[in-house]
Fold:
Amino acid sequence: MGTIAKEYAEALFTLALEENNIDEIADGLSLVSDMFSENPEYLAFLSTPSIPKNERSERFEECFSGRIPDTVLRYALVMLSRGDIRHFTESMHEYKSLCFAAKSVSDAVVHSAVPLTEAELRKLTEKLEKLTGNTVRLTSRIDPSLLGGAVVEVDGIVIDGSIKQRMRELKGIISNEH
Structure:
């Protein structure tokens, strides 16, 4: 993640802690980010330097005033005025990471060649919770490029238990023996 997005997120998170409205702000950030995802032309409009900042700010306020917390509205307007609105969604992800860390929650993603059973997902979640010491929210994704096994990402750590990785390791061992 970028430094700009991280700095914005950290500042907003500090403010959210002071105001005691972490979840409300996260919901507001998600609403704006979803709007940007669904309407990329709107984000492009807000990011266009040739359109006066006050016009872009007015349009943003018209769209979101009363729909999101004032803190999120002011936050987005600061990003807009500084020409950083294109980093909004990235800053939302950074903010949510800070929320999870504060609540001792880790997001994890498991990539596997075939769908994992509920029992396998439950067992993996338990192991990851022991590893991280946090509550783990596990997302499962199918990756047909894997031959078998799984690759797990949690808290910036990648655990590669795929057959593809084991084949690479075996190849390295064989090539070093000759």
